[in-house]
Specification:
Alpha-Beta Plaits, 475 residues, alpha+beta, Multidrug efflux transporter AcrB transmembrane fold, 4-stranded antiparallel β-sheet, 18% strand
Length: 475
């Protein structure tokens, strides 16, 4: 029995210390949110009423733009009919503002030629023309030095542009747009069991049918790129003229790629005009001050709690101290890992959730220790009470933690913005509390309760903390 308790205690401590050491040695730290790191917060609203699908597509487009800016851990979400964009640590704020609110439009452009991935080296003075793609579209007559390496600001529908291909490293030189997304009526991803591949079937509007017919006749056997927001989503080849307003795009699509392309065709046909309702700049100084104040408040509160627990429960208060240290090491490691792997950002609301969870954790210790007192008052010894008392107290701990966990889960899924951060960290701390209570607190208290050095010490003995006789008594 004692060996099993020692193994449990050793595993938890090793896991906590090891994970923290690995985190620190790797040079990793938690990702900070906008209110702690500083940055830019923008609220975007459509100029006219749009459906949820269009708003969701606009959110995805903005997310792609922000990713292109290189902003770490952005928070982009929909609240009602608005899109909230939080950009922590953004450096070029004017460029960020110009990109996040720029109107997107789906365009169909003829492919003039293929180019390799962008090369930052100085352009060559040779006149070698760009290599055409395998579908052999018309070879461009301009040299690589003359081909514009356009950005989104210069990407107009009448321009000849060079744009990157989604999920690929190459670029395509494209001619002026000859049809836009308003020509598309519906689009759906379907699986063709005969060919064993995914396809995208689409239909056009009345006016769009004429445009598609003219476009397909003009470029039969050639590629036409589907461009959205400065990126080529697909570049299918017209096998024949389409005169009935119904077309199919086939290729080596995965299910997700086919559905994403259908989504682009379906919702990219409705350009969303967004206006900046509010723009707020959060300074890094304010963020650091907030973090400093939050940490100071948390440390002062934690210190007072630990002082009280040690004075009231004596040696058992030391158990609380070590339990909180183990919990803190695990929490720091988990938050850092999630920030690195999944983009989890620690905001001031999240830090508040962690601080509040300290009260939940301390409550678990109080429940256990008070249960031990009840066992001892009934005439039992410390040695016989520690294990039985935990079994009864743990049911209460689980019930209390489940209430906190249910509240955190509901708050996370029903709330938005920083409130979700508070709920997530509160829930994470509550789950840790249940594990620490069983695998750390229980074995440590049981082992202390069987050691006379700790139970009978004059000032800080467990017996004095539980108001029990130092030795003897019925079992």
């Amino acid at each position: 029995m004692r060996r099993g308790l020692g193994v449990s205690l050793a595993i938890v401590v090793t896991l906590a210390v090891g994970s923290l050491a690995a985190t620190l040695i790797g040079g990793h730290t938690p990702k900070l949110g906008l209110d702690l790191q500083g940055g830019l917060s923008v609220v975007l609203q459509p100029t006219h009423t749009v459906n949820a699908g269009v708003l969701k597509q606009a959110e995805g487009i903005i997310r792609n733009r922000v990713d292109a800016l290189g902003v770490a851990e952005p928070d982009i979400h929909i609240e009602g009919s608005s899109i909230i964009v939080a950009l922590p640590g953004v450096k070029n704020r004017q460029r960020a503002l110009s990109l996040v609110g720029q109107t997107a439009e789906l365009r169909f452009r003829p492919v003039l030629g293929a180019l390799p991935a962008f090369d930052a080296s100085p352009p060559s003075t040779t006149t070698t023309t760009a290599a055409p793609p395998t579908s052999a579209p018309p070879t461009p007559t301009t040299t690589p030095a003359q081909i514009p390496t356009t950005n989104r600001e210069g990407n107009t529908k009448d321009a000849t542009v060079v744009l990157p291909v989604a999920k690929e490293t190459g670029r395509l030189q494209l001619g002026p747009s000859e049809m836009d997304g308003r020509a598309i009526k519906t689009a759906r991803a379907n699986f063709n069991p005969t060919a064993g591949q995914w396809t995208v079937d689409f239909t056009t509007t009345g006016a769009g049918s004429k445009l598609l017919s003219a476009l397909s006749q003009k470029y039969t056997g050639k590629q036409v790129a589907i461009e959205l927001d400065g990126q080529v989503k697909s570049a299918p080849q017209f096998r024949e003229a389409i005169t009935n307003g119904q077309g199919q795009i086939s290729g080596s699509f995965s299910e997700k790629e086919a559905k994403d392309l259908a989504l682009v065709l379906r919702y990219g046909s409705l350009p969303v005009d967004l206006k900046r309702a509010t723009t707020q700049e959060v300074s890094a100084t304010l963020g650091k001050d907030s973090l400093r104040a939050g940490l100071l408040a948390g440390l002062i509160g934690l210190g007072l709690v630990l002082l009280y627990m040690i004075l009231y429960y004596r040696a058992l208060g030391i158990v609380v101290l070590f339990g909180l240290l183990v919990s803190g090491m695990l929490m720091y490691s988990i938050v850092t890992f999630l920030g690195t792997s999944s983009g989890l950002a620690l905001s001031l609301a999240g830090a508040t959730g962690v601080i509040v969870s300290v009260g939940v954790t301390v409550d678990s210790y109080v429940v256990y220790f008070e249960r031990l007192k009840d066992e001892i008052r009934s005439g039992k010894t410390i040695r016989s009470s520690v294990d039985r008392g935990f079994s009864r107290a743990y049911r209460t701990i689980i019930a209390a933690d489940l209430v906190s966990l249910i509240g955190a889960v509901l708050l996370y899924f029903l709330a938005v913005g920083s409130v979700r951060g508070f709920a997530f960290f509160l829930g994470l701390s509550t789950v840790l509390d249940m594990g620490i209570a069983y695998f750390f607190t229980r074995p440590m208290v049981v082992l202390l309760g069987r050691n006379r050095l700790f139970t009978e010490a004059r000032f800080f003995g467990v017996a004095r903390g539980l108001a029990a006789a130092p030795a003897g008594g019925p079992s």
